[in-house]
Structures are given as C-alpha cells and as structure tokens.
Amino acid sequence: MLDVAVEVLGGNWDAEVAPEAIARRAVAAALEGAGLGDLLSAPALDLEVSVLFTDDSEVRALNRDWRGKDRPTNVLSFPMLSAQMLRALVKAPEGTHLLGDLALAFETCAAEATAAGIPLADHVTHLLVHGTLHLLGHDHEAEDRAETMEAIERRVLAGLGIADPYARAEARG
C-alpha cells in the first residue's frame, strides 16, 4: 500500500491545485514508471511519502539548512532509504518504509509554470514525479543519469496526459 501524507502550510495551493489528489497520482505514477509498481500491490508492504506544499520562504529555509543553498527552489527531495535498502525492499517487500519527504515552493512553482505557459497542476505533477525519482535514487548529476531520469519522467508524464516538459525547454533552447 502507498500512503502519501500531504500537508499544506503556505502558498495558495488549494486555490490552484488539488494538493492531495495531485500528490497521490504523481507519486504512484513515478513508482510505476521507475519499475516499482509491484511494490504498490505487495500485501505485507506499506510505503510512505510525505509531501509538503508550502511557500518560498519555508523551502528557502529547508534548502539553506539541509543543502547549504540560501535560496528557494521548486522542489526538494529528502530520501530516507539508501540504494542498498531500496534493493533489499524490492527483494523482500514487507514492513513499513518511509521513502522520503518532498517539499514544494508555491511562488517558485507558479512563476515557472507561468513562464513556461503551462498549467500549474501539470508543472507540479512533473516536479512531484521528478522529486519521487530522487527519493528512489535517481539523479541528473551526470549526463547519462540525467538522460535515464528524464526518459522515465517523459514516459510517466505521457501516461498522465501531460506534455513533455523537456521538449518545451528544448524548443525554447
């Protein structure tokens, strides 16, 4: 079972998106897209992800305190399982496991969506998928890993009926 715990503590999220629905949908789709869909139906396994919908000032504080970067960002991911623990979980899916925490900054997300000319809900879905993949150990530090991560994101978002965000960025070039 997948439990996505959602908390809205800042920003105008409720007026713009449906935080609980969008978080559950995006996190589950990211797990499926990363090839971990079987875990979602494992009877002896409970997976948890917490999602904080907040504002730029809160995300800036989190980014400063945990990453040493004193600025807001669109999404932060705080994984709780190592790659080794995740592999063990896939082999023996049982127990309750917190995959990690995600935090989104309203003002930054809204500004990015406006600049890209896309609905905020689509952009937030992309960021939640992206953040969930980080919780699963994916990153975009090296070009080959970035390509792998982006390919999963594209596939997941297409399955959710959301246009490829990287194609838009490449077109703006």
Q: How would you describe the overall organization of this protein?
A:
The protein has 173 residues and is an alpha/beta fold. The chain has a single domain, classed as Metalloproteases ("zincins"), catalytic domain (Collagenase (Catalytic Domain), 3-Layer(aba) Sandwich), CATH 3.40.390.30. It has 9 helices and 4 strands, in the order βαααβαβαβαααα. The chain has helices at residues 13-16, 19-33, 37-40, 56-67, 83-91, 106-116, 120-135, 143-159, 165-172, and strands spanning 2-8, 45-54, 75-79, 95-105. Strands 1-2-4-3 form a 4-stranded mixed sheet, sandwiched between helices. Helix 7 packs across helix 8. The protein is globular.
Counting H and I runs of at least 4 residues, what is the number of helices? 9
Reading the helices and strands in chain order gives EHHHEHEHEHHHH
Fraction of helical residues = 55-70%
Mean of pLDDT: 92
Write out the CATH superfamily name.
Metalloproteases ("zincins"), catalytic domain
Backbone shape: globular
Which structural class matches the secondary elements? alpha/beta
Main sheet overview = 4 strands, mixed
Radius of gyration, in Å, reads 16 Å
CATH class label: Alpha Beta
> The CATH topology is what?
Collagenase (Catalytic Domain)
Q: Kindly estimate the percentage of residues that lie in beta strands according to DSSP.
A: 15-25%
Give the uncertain stretches in residue-range form. Answer: none
Distance between the termini: 41 Å
